[in-house]
Design goal:
The chain has 1 helix and 2 strands; from the N terminus they run ββα. The chain is mainly α. The chain has one domain (about 15-70). It has a two-stranded antiparallel ribbon. A hairpin with a 3-residue loop joins strand 1 (about 10) and strand 2. The protein starts with 8 loop residues before the first strand and ends with a helix. The mean pLDDT is about 90.
Length: about 70
Amino acid sequence: MDKSLFPKTVHFGGFDKKDVLRLVDSLNVKIQGLENELNYTKKKLAEADETISARDMEIEELKKKMREQYYNS
């Protein structure tokens, strides 16, 4: 496992404060990146859903026209 994920310990007081703060900052940057990626993916999914809905409506219209042509000929 990556040792950089664990802050150094000191003799008195537990962990080295600077290492802990650096780790927290690093994790915050990663979290922000993941949140941005998630939001982008959600947006793209919503756009895809809209496109699919529009295509479904077009398909239904074409089916209706085909049925009308079939029964009227």
